[in-house]
């Protein structure tokens, strides 16, 4: 998705708010290893105290947010409507990005996110 929208000026950023003391796979060192083996093509940031996640109202990982050119949240929710590729019927995050890039109001501004609970 980062590659698909980069030419339109869209920046994708992943933020990990999990408490590394309670979730060892979420230490900065482990995040660096994960991002290098998966060759992420976007910034993968550590939210050490969870302040960023809390300020956006994140409740799970992943929980997606789309900001407009004024940095207002115009979409919050899931990435797609299913975890299983074959059963996805709606690419909610990508649809919201497409609306923003086209200068349209986001048709669906909020969906129910699903994923793992954030380890505060």
What would you note in describing this structure?
The protein has 120 residues and is α+β, with helices and mostly antiparallel strands. 26% of the residues lie in helices and 16% in strands. The protein contains four helices and six strands; from the N terminus they run H-E-H-E-H-E-E-E-H-E. It has a two-stranded parallel ribbon with strand order 1-2. A hairpin with a 5-residue loop joins strand 4 and strand 5. The longest helix is centred in the first third of the chain and has 10 residues. The radius of gyration is 15 Å and the shape is globular.
Secondary structure elements and their pairing?
Blueprint lengths: L1 H5 L7 E3 L11 H10 L6 E3 L4 H6 L3 E2 L2 E4 L5 E5 L14 H10 L14 E2 L3
Parallel strand pairs: 1-2
Antiparallel strand pairs: 3-6, 4-5
**Helical proportion, percent range:** 25-40%
* Alpha carbon gyration radius: 15 Å
Number of helices: 4
The percent range for strand residues is 15-25%
| Annotation, overall tally of beta strands | 6
Low-pLDDT stretches are none
Spatial shape? globular
The strand line-up of the biggest sheet is 1-2
Ends distance: 28 Å
What pattern of helices and strands is seen along the backbone? HEHEHEEEHE
Overall SS class = alpha+beta
- Average pLDDT confidence is 97
Largest sheet: 2 strands, parallel
């Amino acid at each position: 998705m980062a590659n698909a929208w980069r030419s339109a000026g869209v920046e994708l950023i992943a933020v990990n708010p999990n408490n590394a003391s309670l979730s060892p796979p979420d230490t900065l060192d482990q995040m660096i290893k994960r991002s290098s083996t998966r060759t992420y093509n976007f910034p993968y940031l550590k939210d050490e105290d969870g302040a960023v996640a809390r300020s956006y109202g994140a409740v799970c990982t992943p929980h997606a947010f789309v900001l407009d050119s004024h940095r207002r949240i115009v979409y919050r929710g899931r990435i797609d409507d299913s975890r299983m590729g074959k059963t996805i019927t709606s690419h909610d995050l990508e649809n919201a990005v497409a609306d923003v890039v086209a200068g349209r109001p986001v048709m669906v501004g909020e969906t129910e996110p699903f994923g793992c609970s954030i380890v505060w």
